[in-house]
């Protein structure tokens, strides 16, 4: 939200209270600073009368993290709240003549005593940012009360994150509203809004509220990142690095890291699509067609119309098209497939769950006590109240029946356009619940899957989220058009989400709305099968490759088999996501923060730390992409590309720039037709661009939970060798290839 009219003036109807002096800085228990800041200059006692004051406290919730709370009036904070982990860290307070500092780990906040307001943050890499002058403010506007903060942006600094946003990856110059909405991928709205931004200077800032947060990132003040919240209190956390990857490690340690995903989930998911006609014969024709064409798949997904129209969500298979659901699911399992089914948290008026939920008091109510309803999506639709533990248990039990029929995974669609004119069972603030509802919804479903399927074998396919939602993978990009532009929007959204702490991400190969032409579909196949998770899904048309042309079948086969052979590498990246909070798909700046050429790149990505992927957004195959410093190797054809610099190439549909980093070791699996195999047995370790003295340890997870660790090293003469490290799970057969 913008409050000013240029540099000097406020907008009409806006008043602002900002620190004009510091009356006192109190050190509480040796670990918290509290600054009492009058909003006028105090020259004599009379100036203290009728003088509003901001109370600004500084503390540390975790090592290397410093929290700042700006309060105008002390008012009770109504839930929900983000659940943040962390123990009380060791904190040092240092008092000097002109300042007082609080240090937590590598991060220090220094508050000047003799100026109206000057709060500076210094981390492991040096000075990070600061809040000065009239930056912290309590504002009154025609729309209500707000608290604002502004943090300095240094020349050449770039900001990223704020959830899954489909515009430019660099957020400088953008106005962003943290408010979940179902707006597709071509608008400023987003399904997954996260009040956290990440700087390539090696720090992050998290606004600790699920409320509506407004950001002006170098868009109201060119040299400041501004954020504001409604009410009289704002709390934010500054998180140190020193690298952007270190920031994500600290941030996800606070907000939660992704659960392990099952190996089978990395395989290809094939969907019925949305409004298409389908029954068991249709499903079998797709599966048979994939098998006949040697197109490996792992999951079959049933979208909305597995239930009867006007009855969503009743969790009852449409008897007209699926008269024997248990038998059908058993038959799919016999073919080695997992099954996914679409759900959402909305209960239509004709659903059998509506009357039951209403009678039990499990549906969200209006202030007059009536059930909240509207007619969007499904007629007379109501909403499950996940703030009520009994309502959550009730809905989960209905889902349990679906799982016990044989469904393995659930696509948790929707959860964004949550009303604010309602009353929640636990008294939650309706505005704060708007974004947070997605978290409760996905948590309830994911916890059920863990209970029924076990840890490590639970997976959802979720669309909505906020901070902390990364704990419940996987998330997909939402509804996009079937064009090259929409393909690029989707990639930017995924990279933005990765910079916001989400480890796993997918998208609809070929796009959702409309039908892609064969060129779009084939280019999207390569991108989709070099993503964390891969799904063929559309709206009004099927996405089986032979529906496009014969070449699409060949392209699908090639990249499916490529991904299956990459499973030892992808499985290792999944472990890193789970244990460290680093995403599988990464924007280039995350791996190369010291490279100014990497910051603005948002049409290519790193698949983990060792592979660069540049999707192609054209029929003719021409692509211009950036290569960081070093001697990179194209893993598809063995060609060498020297960086740093930009390169323009042309590729057929069976190719794209897929480059191994200098000194990379990619473990290639021995199986190409499924993802769930013993990734270490028969593995081919391929060393790329090794130079004398280089070495790398490769860790390959095993099905029994053990790990096989290899060390690949080049001696002073450049001879490369590999060995299985002591204590590793034994491997019967493995090879080393040097390229």
TrEMBL record:
Molecular function via GO: alpha-D-xyloside xylohydrolase; carbohydrate binding
Domain (Glycosyl hydrolase family 31 C-terminal) ranges: 581-666
Domain Glycoside hydrolase family 31 N-terminal residues, every copy: 55-214
Stretches assigned to the Glycoside hydrolase family 31 TIM barrel domain: 258-570
Domain of life: Bacteria
Classification via InterPro entries: Alpha-glycosidase_related (IPR050985), Gal_mutarotase_sf_dom (IPR011013), GH (IPR017853), Glyco_hydro_31_C (IPR048395), Glyco_hydro_31_N_dom (IPR025887), Glyco_hydro_31_TIM (IPR000322), Glyco_hydro_b (IPR013780)
This enzyme's EC code(s): 3.2.1.177
Biological process, per Gene Ontology: carbohydrate metabolic process
Pfam families: Gal_mutarotas_2, Glyco_hydro_31_2nd, Glyco_hydro_31_3rd
Catalysed reactions listed for this entry: Hydrolysis of terminal, non-reducing alpha-D-xylose residues with release of alpha-D-xylose
Keywords: Glycosidase, Hydrolase
PANTHER family: GLYCOSIDASE FAMILY 31, MYOGENESIS-REGULATING GLYCOSIDASE
Protein's recorded name: alpha-D-xyloside xylohydrolase
Organism expressing this protein natively: Tessaracoccus lapidicaptus
Organism classification: Bacteria, Bacillati, Actinomycetota, Actinomycetes, Propionibacteriales
């Amino acid at each position: 939200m913008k409050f000013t009219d240029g540099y000097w003036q406020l907008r009409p109807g806006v008043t602002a209270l900002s620190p004009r002096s510091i009356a006192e800085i109190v050190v509480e228990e040796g670990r918290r600073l509290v600054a009492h800041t009058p909003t006028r200059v105090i020259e004599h006692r009379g100036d203290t009368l009728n003088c509003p004051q901001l109370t600004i406290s500084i503390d540390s919730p975790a090592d290397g993290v410093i929290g700042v709370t700006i309060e105008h009036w002390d008012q009770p904070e109504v839930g929900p709240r983000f659940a943040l982990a962390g123990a009380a860290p060791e904190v040092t307070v240092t008092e000097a003549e002109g300042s007082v500092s609080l240090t937590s780990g590598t991060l220090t906040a220094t508050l000047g005593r003799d100026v109206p307001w000057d709060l500076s943050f210094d981390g492991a890499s040096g000075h990070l940012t600061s809040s000065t002058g009239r930056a912290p403010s309590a504002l009154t506007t025609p729309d209500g009360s707000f608290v604002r903060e502004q943090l300095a942006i240094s020349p050449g600094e770039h900001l990223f994150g704020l959830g899954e946003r489909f515009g430019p990856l660099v957020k400088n110059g953008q106005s962003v509203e943290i408010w979940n909405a179902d707006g597709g991928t071509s608008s400023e709205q987003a399904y997954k809004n996260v009040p956290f931004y990440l700087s390539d200077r090696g720090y992050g800032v998290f606004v600790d509220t699920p409320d509506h947060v407004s950001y002006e990132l170098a868009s109201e003040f060119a040299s400041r990142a501004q954020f504001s919240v409604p009410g009289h209190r704002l709390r934010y956390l500054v998180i140190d690095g020193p690298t952007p990857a270190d920031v994500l490690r600290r941030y996800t340690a606070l907000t939660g890291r992704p659960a392990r995903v099952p190996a089978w989930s990395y395989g290809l998911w094939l969907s019925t699509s949305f409004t298409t006609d389908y029954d068991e014969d249709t499903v079998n024709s797709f599966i048979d067609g994939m098998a006949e064409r040697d197109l490996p798949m792992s999951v079959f997904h049933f979208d909305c119309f597995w239930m009867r129209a006007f009855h969503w969500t009743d969790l009852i298979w449409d008897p007209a098209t699926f008269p024997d659901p248990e038998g059908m699911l058993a038959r799919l399992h016999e073919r080695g497939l997992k099954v996914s089914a679409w759900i959402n948290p909305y209960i239509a008026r004709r659903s059998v769950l509506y009357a039951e939920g209403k009678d039990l008091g499990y549906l969200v109510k209006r202030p007059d006590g009536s059930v909240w309803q509207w007619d969007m999506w499904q007629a007379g639709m109501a909403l499950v109240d996940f703030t009520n533990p009994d309502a959550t248990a009730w809905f989960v039990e209905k889902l349990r029946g679906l799982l016990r029929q044989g469904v393995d995974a659930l696509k948790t669609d929707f959860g964004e356009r949550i009303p604010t004119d309602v009353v929640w069972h636990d008294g939650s603030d309706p505005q704060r619940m708007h974004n947070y509802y997605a978290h409760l919804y996905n948590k309830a479903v994911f916890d059920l899957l863990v209970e029924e399927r076990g840890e490590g074998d639970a997976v959802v396919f979720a669309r909505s989220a906020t901070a902390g939602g990364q704990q419940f993978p996987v998330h997909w990009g939402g509804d996009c058009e079937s064009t090259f532009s929409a393909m690029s929007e989707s990639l930017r959204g995924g990279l933005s989400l990765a910079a916001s702490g989400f480890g796993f991400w997918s998208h609809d190969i070929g796009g959702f709305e409309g039908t892609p032409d064969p060129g779009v579909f084939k280019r999207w196949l390569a991108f989709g099968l070099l993503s964390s998770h891969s799904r063929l899904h559309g709206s009004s048309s099927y996405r089986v490759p032979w529906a496009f042309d014969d070449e699409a079948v060949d392209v699908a086969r090639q990249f499916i088999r490529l991904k299956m052979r990459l499973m030892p590498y992808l499985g290792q990246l999944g472990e890193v996501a789970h244990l460290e909070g680093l995403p599988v798909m990464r924007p280039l700046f995350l791996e190369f923060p010291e490279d100014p050429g990497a910051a603005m790149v948002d049409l290519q990505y790193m698949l983990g730390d060792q592979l660069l992927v540049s999707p192609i957004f054209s029929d003719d195959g021409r692509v211009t992409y950036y290569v960081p410093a070093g001697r990179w190797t194209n893993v598809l054809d063995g060609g060498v590309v020297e960086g740093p610099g930009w390169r323009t190439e042309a590729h057929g549909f069976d190719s794209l720039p897929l480059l191994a980093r200098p000194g990379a070791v990619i473990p290639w699996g021995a199986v190409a037709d499924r993802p769930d195999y013993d990734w270490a047995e028969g593995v081919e370790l391929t060393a790329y661009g090794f130079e004398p003295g280089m070495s790398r340890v490769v860790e390959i997870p095993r099905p029994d939970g053990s790990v096989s660790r290899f060390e690949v090293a080049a001696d002073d003469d450049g001879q490369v060798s590999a060995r299985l490290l002591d204590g590793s799970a034994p491997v019967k057969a493995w090879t080393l290839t040097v390229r």
